[in-house]
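Fold sample X.
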Amino acid sequence: MESSRKSPGLRRQLQARHLSMIAIGGSIGTGLFLASGTTIATAGPLGALLSYCIVGLMVYFLMTSLGEMAAYLPSAGSFQTYGARFVDPAFGFALGWNYWFSWAITIAVELAATAIIMQYWFPASPGWLWSGLFLLAIVLLNYFSVRGFGEAEYWFSLFKVLAITLFILSGLVMIFGVLIAPHNAAAGLRLQAFAPGGATLSLQTSAFISVSLIVGFAFQGTELIGVAAGEARDPSTSIPRATRQIFWRIMLFYCLSVLVIGLIVPHNDPALLRSDMRDIGASPFTLVFERAGLGMAASLVNAAVLAAVLSCGNSGMFAATRMLYSMAQRGMAPAWLGQLSSGGVPRKALYFTTAIAALCFLSSLAGNATVYLWLLNAAGMTGFIAWLGIAVCHYRFRRALLKQGLDLACLPYKARWFPLGPVFAFILCLAIMLGQDYATLMAARIDWWHVLATYLGIPLFLTFWLGYKLRYKTRMVLLHEVHFNPQQSLRAGD
């Protein structure tokens, strides 16, 4: 149900440097700084490294698929727009609300995390105060113009990149015995940690699936480049450039970091199993820095985690508001959410997202832990559903191009390995999703309430999809009916 109301559109103010850092920032978060320790402790260094490489390959295929569509048809609605255009309007509707819900809940999670992080430095301060201040900061960064969001994300991402670069360099000089703290003379190259059949190798199905879940969550956010394409200054050149860098970012920042940790920190170190937001000292990054004799390690990692959390909140607010705006423009959300300020910012969508995120955060403060945990479990599945949607949309997009006899040379960026790429990504992503509660389902007595909470995101998505389909009697778009209009699509906010 397309809206006929005209809009001045979003402003194309994001430069190539913004897009590159947005793509980097989307793939660097607490999943790397903290959860990487849990993956190594669970699956061993080799199992963790393989998991990061395999899931990283899946993410690479997904982002090249998204990059191909975003460079050709840049839209603030991203895969929501593509889902409605190439698959089924109901499918696009469900993808859009699924993605908005994911980020609205994620913002609430990040607000809770900032309180814990700041109490590391200010233990006597009330946590809600920091959460409120950071929520206000995130809203202001998104309030005036898209350039404010882009600049903030650029500097957040730059700090994270510098911290990881320092970590990798420190780890490498330790591995080769150049830098070893006096109290940690045993540190150094531990190739036996990666020896096949060694004690640290754990590739059982349950361990590998559970680790892949953690790794998958760590990579979520890379799809932000597709949403940002709607406000990119020159998407036909900047999107391909940012997309081509994805593989090397994944290899350097994730795989190399995990390799360094595995070579320095024993997989059975008790600290690795305590890698959570409440214990920055247990971060594998902190452990490596401490073994290098860098006394300020915990503070540095805490600052990097804070930057990651604020970056995630900032990106989440941007993505959620643009998704609401795009859906409102197409009649898939209330029309007032599609109104823009004089600066081209969907402020009413911003207010609505802020209110929902704040309410979700307050539910955790009010002591209603059950509601909050169910929201978290529902949101946890939504990122994987969005990735599945990207794979489906790209497969249909390319098939429609070929069906209509269009020349692939018209694409500003062409994803490699089609159809293997999106098919591989779809199958692996689906396997990870369905295997989320693998251990519970294999237990002698199944906790069905726990299973329902874990998989809640799937019935919610299906409810949106089937509800819209029944209400508006939509059908799958036939390949020869797909409309391609590159000139029109280059308008911001299309």
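Fold sample Y, listed below.
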Amino acid sequence: MKILVLNCGSSSIKYQLLEMDNEQVLATGGIDRIGQSNGEFKYSSILQEKTSKTITIQNHEHGVELILSSLLDPLTGVVKDKKEIKAVGHRIVHGAEAFIGSVVINDTVLAKVKECASLAPLHNTVNLKGIYASQKFLPDAIQCGTFDTAFHQTMPQHAYMYPIPYEYYDCYKIRKYGFHGSSHNFISKVAAKTLGFDYNRCKIITCHLGNGASIAAIENGKSIDTSMGLTPLEGLMMGTRSGDFDLGALLYLMNKESKPNETIPELLQRTDDMLNKKSGMLGISGYSDMRDAADSADAGNEKSKLALKMYAYRVKKYIGSYTAAMGGVDIIVFSGGIGENNVAIREVICNGFEYLGLDFNTERNQTARGVLKEISKPDSKVKAIVVPTNEELVIARETLALLE
């Protein structure tokens, strides 16, 4: 059975076509800079090495149409008839409290996803565009949705509530939801299986470290806390997001930076842009990409050195706090673009955790990019491991389970 997985971002689409009988990836690729003249379309398959071309991609519907055209191409495509694609699995960022698992998409689900769009306007809106395009071009395929927030719906109330007037939860459902759920779910299970732990009887801290980053505390197979909150802004320092920040300092800054005759919505929008798009690594070092910041630090840039120290320090603090919350930890998992590939950051984060029982293996940490590998010593009480994430596979598996 063939399942297409779509992950729509604000100006991008990532996709995979999988044959679920053996979970083989038949085709994969991505689309970037939707709506711009220098859009990029990437495609590779079991019949075609990775190719890339510059093309104007008008909108998400056009992007989905291009993906299907490539899959159906007589020479390099892997599908002869679009009816071979039995289902489409969509990543949907925010499901609020409405969804605790993946669902088959119908009108009721679409209405709820629209309601949740106010909590993630940059994400849910484009997720919906991918769903509508798939319904148009693949009318016979079953559409399914997997929510970033669903995995974290097991958090206890004392972990997800904010210490503000309770009425705001009653009225607006202001609470912590968490994100990257598919990734935390996948990497925690792979880590436990690889290291020989019973997933439902161990304590795992998963670190999904990329341009967007989050950490989760998973106890006995359930997420009990995570660093992102109502929105993806809370938590760790990220590529362009501030992460945790003193709200009093924010109010002070807004008062200082307000302009004459500026409306409140205008001030709020500038503040939102500052926190989400101009802060984090970019705000401190001038570089949003960790590789660029590291190169700059190696060249002697003090701000880049500071940014790297700040990043690692905040990850270390969250690991420590979640260890305390669970009363210990068995496994610490690193994943995401930074977690999988940045040797130096992993070493800085793990050093100093000897008191927890983590005996870090510096030599094993010198692993190739994106390789599943334990990076603690064989007799270490607490295990550390690198697990390449695969959110698309999680979505495909969830979709298959719904069909079955």
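Sample Y note: Residues 302-326 form the longest helix (25 residues).
Also: The mean pLDDT is 95.
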